[in-house]
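Note to self: user wants both folds in one dump. Writing first protein now.
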Amino acid sequence: MRLISIALILVLLAACGPSTGQPSSSKQVSAYIQNKGSDTIVNLALAWAERYQAEHPDVSLSVTGGGSGTGIAALVNGTVDIANASRAMKREEKQQAEANGITPVEFTVARDAIAVIVNPENPVQQLTLQQISDIYSGKFNNWSEVGGDDRPIVRLSRETNSGTHVYFLETVLRLGDKTNPTLFSTDTLLLPSSEGIINEVRQNPNAIGYDGLGYVPPDLMNSVIAVARDASGPYVIPSIATVNDNSYPVARDLYMYTAGEPAGAIKDYINWILSPEAQAIVADLGFVPIK
């Protein structure tokens, strides 16, 4: 009995003593926010998190990508605080969330232009939305069909869980027509990241890809295609100015979703993201501020 009593006292003392499982730190974290989703937004979200944590050391932020679908699925399942998405939530996704007792709340946190990019060796400099649709659907298979050299077209796209993929399908391939059944050509190469699209376009003289404007590096800016809504023009290069004046036809909002109206540290963080300080970071990274 005496041995049992001593053992219990030792257990209690161990429970009350400092933990040795993690390194000690003088930083007291009062809130932990998990932020997951769109690969388009991930670099912007990381920049926001870094700045915010520097100013609010009591808040810890975890930012990961994986695609808009991945982030939204995590929100639906209740495993993330904020889901990043480069497309709006679908009706069925909202219904799944509500079935789990979660009411998604949408915040527009930035805007983005989708740049269509070709290799620097490609002489094609402008295309209509219909021509881009015909290229990606497989109707056009040679660059000579759109005023280029006699070369095969290599189509590059993000994977299907990407919000950018979904947006490009609905806005460009289907020309905004919800009844249009057009699909990507079956030989389209699906790549897992924005960086993958950029690298392949840079290396392949026959390639065409699309990416968020903020991901286009300086050496490929001259290879960004000017896009027109139809053959009558005008052909417009994507930029902050042409997104804001609505002259560039392939631009979209970028979103964060929370599980219900945010409160506490999450509400404070969302409010900061919408502030002039955070929106200045949006412009610095090549996206379009909402204010």
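First done. Writing the second protein, which came from a different request thread.
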Amino acid sequence: MKGFRTGPGAERQGTGRIRPVFDHLDALTDHRGLFEHALLADPRVEHGYCVDDAARGLVVTCREPNPGPVVQRLHRRYLTFVTAAVRPDGTCHNRMDPDGRWSDEPGLGDWWGRALWGLGVAAAHSPGLGRRAGALAGFRIAAQRRSPDVRASAFAALGAGELLRARPAEPAALELLDHILSTLGRQRSTGDWPWPEPRLTYANATVAEALMVAGDALGDEAGLARGLELLTFLMGVEVAGSHLSVTPVCGRSPGESGPHFDQQPIEVAAIADACATAHRITGDPEWLAGLDLACRWFLGENDSLTVMFDPETGGGYDGLERTGRNENQGAESTLAMLSTAQQARRVAEFG
């Protein structure tokens, strides 16, 4: 794994300057769930809620080692929301209107995969036996199904992998990861483009992380090696000089050079998660350089030299633009910042 080290000891320099603060996430959450969008720092109530964000919120609140009353309350809210979205046949709703009514047909898109991610993490780490049991029940129901979508399957794999670290014999998680290795792990490309898709799109590092997690959990060395190969390739594409220059909303094809805009915090958070997972599995300290780059991106070491979060409230800005940033602080961007800060803290404390 070569090509993006930021200098001797760089993996420690950025981690102390970014920390998770939950004030803004709390402001985006009401008695039902987490509002998806914001106008500047104010929630756009009229746009309602979605499982995509509540599931990410469930992961983030589970990661807090010593959650205070605010984080515990948020955790309960998100767990209730996500479990309510899972239908008896394993499909999942995503969108709820401001009056508390589901406004979509249940399906197996990204939100289904993220629901499995959140429920798998909660089944392993939620405080209290009752909550863990409820999350596990929801996970088992949703894990009956399989999605044809690459990203949805990758998100689901992360939940299954985390659940197996706590419950190594859990059949629903084992079967889900086996399916992901047998499908996603078989996809190959030729030439100078090893990525399993013709174009980079969004949350790209999650695809690599899913293969690493599945390969590690199932003892499949080929799957693990494939995930590490993809992450190494991705970092070679998404690092420009000494900073991250991630794939923008419009995607990236072979041969395209940047920078391109607008860049989304979710891309950076996915890199932070994947590099942290690669370090945990392999013990190779070079992967910490990727996590450091993700922290530095939020701190302003990016293509526009713009700070991408509010350190006082923990709000994340919605996109990096050529001349600055999108000033709105929606749920996805805020959770991306919090997730990256948590990974940085974990490395600083235990790395």
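Dump finished. Worth passing along: Strands lie at 38-39, 42-43, 49-50, 95-96, 239-240, 243-244, 319-321, 324-326.
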